[in-house]
Design brief:
Helix content is 21%, strand content 23%. Strands 2, 4, 6, 7, 9, 10 and 12 form a seven-stranded mixed β-sheet that branches. A six-stranded mixed β-sheet has the order 14-13-17-18-15-16, covered by helices on one side. The radius of gyration is 37 Å and the shape is elongated. By secondary structure, it is of the alpha+beta class.
Length: 480
């Protein structure tokens, strides 16, 4: 644990301490220079940041089985209250320009990049399997100095509160989801996925302006079933104790508390405009920003689209802008991934491979998005080529295309569908075609049925003869 000092102390000894004696000869009076009196010249700006030095400490032991080059890992028990101490190094409350209260937002997000791509689906699945439960909660009775704690029902993994940096503040948190709930088999404890517990602190501002970011820090955690973290920590300690001395040096020293490490802030949606803020459930972890720079860095407003007028087979133009790409995703029912692909142009999206899209959107939606981007033509179940029987010389044909073969595509493979396509091709009223025949061996006429249509060979060709009949008035069609 780091200890902060509220007052500056001189780390170097004074000349009188190094050389005792009368103040003459070697020792002279100190000149009134800034570097000796730790003052600043009026014209020299300060290089220190104006934001206060903040530190967050989780009162839970770190694992001793973490190698030196890796990030420290802390084990937590599901539903157990853990204290997070909020420290402030500078006298923030004494400075008039600074507010007396700070606002902090605490989140539990995924550390695994694979899960960051599908964070919304993972959290929605957890909400469905655990109705009424939360991922992160505040233990208000145990907390000290926590002012106006807020827990929104729509944000299962986020809590926020205000606190006074001049007073002692201890926040008690409870994590209710375990790491194995997001693994494929959902069994075992040691192979569960790690989470990232992140705290972002802001300086409240006027209602018209967004809050000013001051500090962000996070730590890596794994959550086990009750008492599972204690057993895992004991197992790790025994494992390290059995290691030779030269092997122990490869592992980090375990501490009784976990100090949050500074990190990039969780980017918030822009406050400008009439659009409501986005829920963190629809946002991926901030550590995936390096790859995709999703909506948290560039918030796109919701689009008002005329989905009824849009063609479902519309291709994505490679030169499409970011806005046009977002509209295309909305029209093709990929709205849930618009925020994840917020900075993608048409070219960027078309460059993604099938495996890339499966990794980002999951198997089902990834394949669907890949096929939609490639606009594969739908292959019909049966294709026939039909020409109208040549008319007599003294008869004017009703269809100017008679004599030429035209394509008919069938999907349902039924007589009704075939008769409708033939009526359209021959320019005849569909309700006046009473029978449809197929000329068989020896010139016999075979009445078409659904089974006959299904047994037709693909890409067969026929000549359609139209027979006028009476009582009832209509037509018979014969395919030869």
């Amino acid at each position: 644990m780091l200890f902060w000092h509220n007052q500056l102390e001189h780390l170097w000894s004074s000349p009188g301490e190094l050389y005792p004696g009368p103040p003459s000869g070697l020792l002279r009076e100190s000149l009134p220079l800034p570097y000796l009196k730790q003052e600043e010249l009026p014209n020299i700006p300060s290089t220190e940041p104006p934001s206060p030095a903040l530190q967050y400490v989780l009162c839970a032991a770190t694992s001793p089985a973490v190698r030196q080059q890796e990030e420290a890992l802390t084990y937590l028990n599901q539903g157990q209250s853990y204290e997070v101490q909020m420290h402030c190094a500078s006298k923030l409350g004494d400075a008039s320009p600074w507010p007396r209260l700070l606002k902090s937002v605490v989140r539990v997000v995924f550390h695994d990049r694979r899960l960051q791509y599908t964070e919304q689906q993972q959290l929605d699945g957890w909400r469905w399997s655990r109705p009424g439960d939360r991922i992160l909660d505040i233990d208000v009775p145990l907390s000290v100095g926590v002012i106006e704690p807020q827990v929104l029902s729509s944000q299962l993994n986020t809590v926020e509160f205000h606190w006074d940096p001049t007073k002692r503040t201890s926040l008690f948190l409870q994590v209710h989801c375990i790491s194995t709930e997001f693994t494929p088999r959902k069994k075992g404890g040691e192979k569960g996925v790690p989470f990232r517990l992140q705290i972002d602190t802001f300086k409240p501002s006027d209602k018209e302006l967004p809050p000013e970011h001051l500090h962000s820090a996070s730590c890596l955690i794994k959550v086990f079933k009750p008492k599972g973290a204690d057993r895992k920590l004991k197992t790790d300690r025994e494992k390290i104790e059995k290691q030779p001395l030269h092997e122990r040096d490869k592992y980090q020293t375990a501490y009784e508390s976990t100090v949050f490490v500074e990190c990039s802030p969780w980017p918030e949606p822009s406050g400008a405009g009439p659009y409501p803020p986005l829920s963190p459930l629809t946002l991926t972890s901030p550590h995936s920003c390096k790859l995709l720079s999703p909506d948290r860095l560039c918030c796109s407003p919701p689009f008002i689209l005329d989905t009824l007028g849009a063609s479902p087979a519309e291709d994505l133009n490679p030169g499409a802008s970011i806005l046009e790409t977002q509209q295309w995703l909305h029209r093709h029912r990929f709205s849930s991934y618009c925020r994840l692909l917020a900075n993608f142009t048409g070219t960027d999206l078309l460059k993604l491979t099938r495996q890339d899209l499966i990794q980002i959107c999951g198997t089902a939606d990834g394949i669907r998005l890949f096929n939609t981007l490639r606009t594969r033509p739908i292959r019909h179940r049966l294709t026939l080529y039909v020409a109208q029987e040549a008319s007599r010389p003294d008869e004017v044909p009703k269809n100017p295309d008679s004599g030429f073969y035209q394509e008919i595509s069938l999907d349902e493979l039924s007589v009704v569908e075939l008769m409708g396509k033939l009526a359209e091709l021959l320019a005849l009223p569909a309700n006046q075609i009473h029978r449809l025949f197929h000329q068989g061996p020896g010139g016999i006429l075979i009445l078409f049925s659904d089974q006959v249509v299904q047994n037709l060979k693909d890409e067969s060709y026929f000549v359609a003869a139209v027979k006028k009949v009476q009582n009832p008035d209509g037509y018979y069609l014969v395919l030869t």
